[in-house]
Amino acid sequence: MINKFINQAAILILTGAMATSALAAEVVTVGGKFFTEQFILSEMTTQLLKAQDIPVEQKTGMGSSLVRKAQENGEIDLYWEYTGTALVVYNKVTEPLSPEETYNRVKALDAEKGLVWLKASNANNTFALAVRKQDEADNGLHTLSDLAHAYRDKKELTLAGTAEFIGRADGIKSLQKAYDFRVPRSQLKSMDSGLTYNALKDGLVDIALVFATDGRIAAFDFEILKDDKQFFPNYAIVPVIRKEVLEQYPALETALNELSAKLDDATMQSLNASVDIDKKSVQTVAAEFLKANNLL
Question: For the domain 127-224, what is the CATH code?
Fold first, then answer.
């Protein structure tokens, strides 16, 4: 009888150990959107996880709404989100908020959905509209109010933006309302985010949607039109992780917060330029940055 009890206890211990081992080996899925900055952030996150012997896989190249929905459904565990996007697009908050208020609001709202916002970086990848510097003086465009005035005066200026920007609540429709202007349909060109930069550089359009941390702004000698009415919300870049995954791998909080603390506008512009201008691989850029900052 004693031997039987010992055998049963051993089986229970072994089963428990196997279950614990299986739990510890659960794969963390790192997501990302479909542009350079997101590829870099996803890759740096993946390399950090691998360095901690955490099994990981990537699912990048997704649209904003898709990656967010995937995280809420548990298909994506971790990715870097933008406070302004979460505030306006996902949580439908349209009141003007300061950067700190924006972060605190989305952190609280998403906590109800089981999503944890870790520490915000100092990188603010806000939407912006840019022109070529050599054209700025000729067009008289220095601010978004100047742009609005030009459209009200029926100037023919072609504007390139992404399909998301043209359709989103925090995109061109709301911008036109805030600044009281309208871009004629014939002068509004929808294209992938990467193509807007080249279209502006090559003179195919007069104004282009850019992102403030993109390395091509300086490389292509663009000038960002000042958002003088402060229409665009803050788009701080923040790692967001599902609560149950963070509870399983609590060391991720320190690792990701340390990485977040290293990121600002200039750093992200440099990293993005390394890929888009210098043509380095995303994997190389990510590894070099992590090693240079003693994160690997």
Answer: 3.40.190.120
